[in-house]
């Protein structure tokens, strides 16, 4: 009986230690997430200005930047108001048959 009570007390102590470790870990994770969420907006503008100060055109900064720049240039407005598949003269078969 004494051995059983000792083993039960040991298991309770281990379970309590594990529970406290989980609670402290969760609290620490929460604090780190809140800190990262608060500090992130302070760092992002500085990083944006630091990367914007790079000298030279975008294609000199690497092939990925050149590909992004070229894709953005091709997606810009080309002056067309209608899509290419729209014909300039609408097809009216009834009028052609009557003529």
In angstroms, what is the radius of gyration? 34 Å
Order of helices and strands: HHH
The rounded distance between the terminal residues' Cα atoms is 112 Å
The best one-word shape is: elongated
Structural class by sheet pairing and helices: mainly alpha
| Beta-strand percent range | under 5%
State the major sheet.
Answer: none
The low-confidence runs, each spanning 5 or more residues with pLDDT under 50, are none
Helix content: 55-70%
Q: What is the mean predicted local confidence, pLDDT?
A: 77
Please count the beta strands (DSSP E, at least 2 residues each): 0
Number of discrete helical segments? 3
What would you say this structure looks like, in words?
- This protein has 99 residues and is mostly helical.
- It has a domain at 1-46.
- It has helices at residues 2-52, 63-74, 93-98.
- The longest helix has 51 residues, at 2-52.
- The protein is built from three helices and no strands.
- The protein is elongated, with a radius of gyration of 34 Å.
Could you give the topology of this structure?
Elements (H helix, E strand, L loop, with lengths): L1 H51 L10 H12 L18 H6 L1
Q: Can you give me a brief rundown of this structure?
A:
The protein has helices at 2-52, 63-74, 93-98.
Question: How would you describe this structure in keywords?
Answer:
99 residues; mainly alpha; elongated
């Amino acid at each position: 009986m004494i051995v059983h009570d000792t083993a039960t007390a040991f298991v309770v102590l281990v379970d309590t230690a594990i529970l406290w470790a989980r609670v402290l870990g969760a609290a620490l994770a929460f604090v780190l997430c809140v800190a990262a969420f608060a500090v992130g907006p302070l760092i992002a503008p500085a990083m944006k200005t630091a990367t914007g100060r790079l000298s030279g055109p975008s294609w000199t900064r690497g092939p990925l930047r050149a590909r992004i720049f070229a894709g953005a240039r091709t997606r810009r407005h080309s002056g067309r108001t209608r899509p290419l598949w729209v014909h300039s003269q609408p097809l009216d078969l009834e009028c052609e048959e009557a003529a």
